[in-house]
Specification:
With 423 residues, this protein is of the alpha/beta class. The protein folds into two domains: 242 residues, Rossmann fold (3-Layer(aba) Sandwich), CATH 3.40.50.2000; 168 residues, 3-Layer(aba) Sandwich (Rossmann fold). 40% of the residues lie in helices and 15% in strands. A seven-stranded parallel sheet has the order 3-2-1-4-5-8-9, sandwiched between helices. A three-stranded parallel sheet has the order 10-11-12, sandwiched between helices. A three-stranded parallel sheet has the order 13-14-15, sandwiched between helices. β11, α9 and β12 form a beta-alpha-beta unit. α15 packs antiparallel against α16. The longest helix has 19 residues.
Length: 423
Amino acid sequence: MRPLRFLLVATFYPPYSFGGDGISVRRMARALVARGHEVTVVYDQDAYLSLAESAPNDTEAGRDGVRTVALKSSLGILSSLLVHQTGRAVVHGRELASLVRDIKPDVIWHNNVSLMGAPGILALEAPLRVYEAHEHWLVCPTHVLWRYDRELCETKQCLRCTIAHRRPPQLWRYSGLLHRKLAGMDLIIAKSEFSRRKHRDYGLPFDMEVLPLFLPPLAAAERPAGNTPPVHPRPYFLFVGRIEKIKGVQDLIRATIRHDRADLLIAGNGHYTEELKAQAAGHPRVRFLGHVAPDDLARYYGAAIACVVPSIVYETFGAILIESFRMGTPVIARRLGPFPELVETSGAGLLFETDDELVSVMAALQDDPMRRADLARAALTAFDAHWREDRVIARYGAALGAAARRKGNVELAERLEDSLCIL
């Protein structure tokens, strides 16, 4: 069978990326290559460099079978500003169109294309066109439903909110352009039931298919050995992720200081690091690890009492939760956004709303090793059943195949199903 040709479009792609969306796109690209397909990822280097302090160290390019194409120009941040304000690929439009003509993709797959020329580029033609909503950009100019840069968005006040975020308003959002272009999508994907509901509640008039993130199962070499020296001398809770205010680590630091019977290890970097270090100054229970290599991070997961996910905004999924479950590590998560559905599906964690509840569940888990062990076993079982790569890719294959059948393209549907729906 001839390999299918996939063109994945994303504003950010590792190492030219900041958060989990780029990592998720790379994971999907690699999964498709592993199943025999030809995958090209096109991303916008201008967008990354306009926001980053320096260029990354590109050490993995070309080693995984994924072809990457970086869009770049001499305009730098001006290129991103033109896209942001017009909703069209002003600088890179011809290059994108030429790429589509050359590749002749069977599937064009849009992933967080906010600074690639969307919604204009959603008109690029292919037998199957897919949009995957890694963020809430379709219904929120700031992507995160964080109103006025200080509170959860409960009612839309987009113009005032955009100005509060110090961003120029996108007037094209009031023209109907986005919905006209989305109408041409054959499949629109939400990452959780919560995110699908939020998109609907905030005015998206299209059906969305819920397909979660996934991870490959751990290889034997990735599992911490029983004789591995401890990574930390005292009991600890773990935070993993970008260090930004919206991730809620400030609340976790306060809870750790109040709990005062276990340490907090914070793995990651971000713009809010210095503020958090000032908050934690003089409190030896709080330790900042900075960037942690994946092999070392597995050891930190394995020995933690729990991984705590205190985000104060509406996430679309929660990759850290399933990373924890894969390691057999229980989760303590804020009762917000998609976290309750992940915790309830897994049976492998505890939820909190207030600072007092966070302190209470930290103590409950530390004081009850048998309960922690039960949650750890549930985490491993749930990961295998719901978020293991082959199981989720099979769900993608079924959804893509169904979308192709709705268009009357039975041949494409069968090729998608035959190559992806394999357990």
